[in-house]
Design goal:
Blueprint lengths: L8 E8 L9 E9 L5 E7 L8 H7 L3 H4 L5 H12 L3 E4 L2 H15 L11 E3 H8 L4 H9 L9 H18 L7 H7 L6 E2 L6 E3 L5 E3 L9 H7 L2 H7 L7 H35 L1
Parallel strand pairs: 1-4, 4-5
Antiparallel strand pairs: 1-2, 2-3, 6-7, 7-8
Helix pairs in contact: 6-7
Length: 278
């Protein structure tokens, strides 16, 4: 196998009530986890989303409201899934834009925590688009000469994504053989994201910047000086930014405040020392 793993890599897929990251819910989650020794482990679960599934979504994944009525809620299933993830890096198909941000919302909403900052994210769709420009079904045909069996079943899509990924590693010799390098290559755009939805990024100095709108490219610290109310608007209930994005922004503001406090305290100690010597 071309891939070199230092820790497990988990290919995941979710089926949902709709396409809105901040308001829609998971109705099925499936994942296949590959370990450094090449062994795999799978998990699949229908989820009661506690809200109606849109007709458009039912038409895609064929999971009805009746099918999930007696299934566990995500809050009930979350501990089991987080235990399954463990210390894995994460991979999927269009996962950087949809599956992982929506999963982060569900985890936050359920009152649990998972440190996504410790993960590398490999988006197989981005690798595919940079190399061939196709859909997942076409990717399976192109790379594996197979038809997807059970398309839009979360576990089936996860397994298909893993197969496409392994075939990509064999086909493209210029791809790196480690998760960190593959995560960098499969990132959409050149800016490193600070959150999971791409609303916040990091500049060359590692500073958190806004990645959209009128303040795009400006650091959180700079915008805090120029327009103090922007932060309050961003994290308020009036906006539909993802919960995880708001959490990252709060952490950055806390870091900035603590840095200012530390600088102030150090200056005060320096002044005390200066005058005490006199």
């Amino acid at each position: 196998m071309k891939l070199k793993l230092e820790r497990p890599l988990c290919f995941l897929d979710i089926e949902t009530t709709g396409l809105q990251i901040t308001t829609d819910r998971i109705v099925q989650i499936g994942a296949v986890k590959i370990f450094p020794d090449g062994t795999t482990k799978e998990i699949i679960q229908l989820i009661n989303p506690e809200m109606p599934i849109s007709e458009e979504s039912v038409g895609i994944h064929h999971i009805t409201n009746e099918m999930v009525a007696n299934e566990p809620t995500f809050k009930t299933f979350c501990p089991t899934f987080l235990e399954f993830l463990g210390d894995s890096d994460l991979a999927g198909y269009n996962s950087n834009k949809f599956d992982i941000p929506l999963l982060a919302e569900e985890i936050e909403r359920a009152g649990f925590t998972f440190d996504f900052n410790k993960c590398h994210f490999v988006d197989v769709q981005n690798i595919f688009h940079k190399k061939e420009q196709r859909t997942l079904a076409a990717a399976m045909k192109f790379y594996c000469n197979e038809e997807i069996q059970g398309a839009h079943d979360a576990l089936a899509d996860s397994i298909s994504t893993m197969k496409v990924f392994m075939a990509q590693l064999e086909r493209y010799e210029d791809l790196e053989d480690n998760v960190q390098g593959l995560a960098t290559f499969s990132r959409s755009g050149n800016l490193e994201w600070a959150d999971l939805a791409g609303r916040l990024g990091k500049n060359g100095k590692g500073e958190v910047v806004y990645n959209f709108g009128k303040h795009k490219g400006k650091t959180v610290a700079q915008v805090g000086k120029d327009e103090p109310g922007y932060y309050g608007w961003f994290i308020s209930d009036a906006t539909d930014f993802p919960r995880y994005t708001k959490q990252i922004l709060r952490q950055e503001m806390d870091r900035i405040k603590n840095l200012k406090k530390s600088i102030t305290e150090n200056d005060l100690e320096a002044l005390k020392s200066k005058f005490s010597k006199k």
